[in-house]
Amino acid sequence: MEILKTLAVALSLGTLAGLNLYLTVFVTGLALQMDWVALPPPLHGLEVLGHPIVIAVAGVLYLVEFLADKVPWIDTAWDAAHTFIRPVGAAAIAVAAMGEAHPAFEVVGALLAGGMALSSHIAKSGTRLAVNASPEPFSNIGLSVAEDTLVLGGLALLVWSPIVALAVSMAFIGVILFFLPRLIRCIRTTLWFAWKKLNAPPEHKKASEPMKSIPLKWEAQLRRMHPAKSPIEWAVPCVSHKGDLVKGNIHGWLLSLGAEPSEVRFLGRTWRGGLAVAMDIRDARIQINEGFLGDRIDITHRDGHPRQAFSFCAEWTRCAKALASRLKEDSDLVSRTPGQEPLLGIQSLSQLGAEELGS
Fold first, then answer.
1. Among the four 121, 170, 319, 358, which has the fewest Cβ within 10 Å?
2. How does pLDDT run across 88-115, given as a tens digit for each residue?
């Protein structure tokens, strides 16, 4: 039972260190220095955290992190620098918590604590990166305060019951791992949008009109889905937002075929292969939303569903505004065209006989 409690303390501290290493060390060391908690014999190795020098250094670094965490993009740079520091710090804390345990047990504990710290760090940094798409600082401040509160609450729970704290930590890591693929897509997409914004040409040099063609690999995917040789009327590179048709953060193309002015199509690629959907725009509600990293077009079917949004990087923001106006005109025009049969609100590849296309 003592071994389990020791491991519970090591892994719980590792999880909290992934959120805020310096606050975890500072509060733990201060609690030991002030005799707010008494360590059982197996955990005497943690007494090093109560050394005045350790407390002082952790306190100063926490103060720096407290300020950096409140500023958009500065917090992302800080998190990037701590991608290795937090897991290594968590592993060091785990080794200290093991005390005189067998070396093999110390290695296992260090690896597990470092892995849990890395998981919580990815969740923290990924959430911050997504929030930074909005330039206002209030969400960053709120998240920073929430993270610090979570660390303090976790330390209090650890004092009350190490076993319960371990169970909560494992549940927390389980949730992170469940959402990890989506989180990684979000991180990748946000970094891509940020890079495009930093390298975007001057406003007057940005693309103002959609393209008339798409790369050959995308053309092949389109033609496998749509055998008719209808020419592409327009095409714009974009990234999907989570909606009724497509999940979020999928890179691809928004396009229209000349023979089907009442539909817009999205071609994308996932790790499972190609994806394509079609949406009826007659009487649809088209809205352009300007963002910090790029603009977004929201398309809502005349019945309210499906709803889908597509984001455009800084290089294509001028084109996105022009495209939104064009879609509104096309929506009104095809709605007044007589003799057309009503279309389905959505056409996916499953309705066409093949939901996913191989790359």
1. 358
2. 999 999 888 887 777 788 888 889 999 9
CA distance 287 to 324: 7
CA distance linking residue 195 with residue 198, whole number of Å: 5
How many residues are there in the chain? 359
User: What residues contact 221, with CB distance under 8 A and at least 6 apart?
Assistant: 267, 269, 274, 276, 357
> Each residue of 296-333: pLDDT tens digit?
999 998 888 889 999 999 889 889 988 888 888 877 66
**Is 206 inside a domain boundary?**
no
Same domain, 221 and 189: no
Examine the domain organization and report whether 160 and 232 are in the same domain: no
**Cα of 226 vs its chain's centroid, Å:** 33
Residue 38 lies in a domain: yes
Residue with tokens 């057309």: 340
d(Cα 102, Cα 146) in Å, to the nearest integer? 37
Supply the CATH number for residue 298's domain.
Answer: 2.30.29.30
Residue 350's domain comprises 216-357
- Domain's final residue, options 198, 232, 260: 198
Q: Which backbone phi and psi does 280 adopt, to 5 degrees? A: -75, 125
Last residue of a domain, one of 165, 198, 231: 198
How buried is 182 (Cβ within 10 angstroms: 0-12 exposed, 13-18 middle, 19+ buried)?
Answer: middle
Residue partners of 1: CB distance under 8 A and separation at least 6: none
Report how many domains make up the chain.
Answer: 2
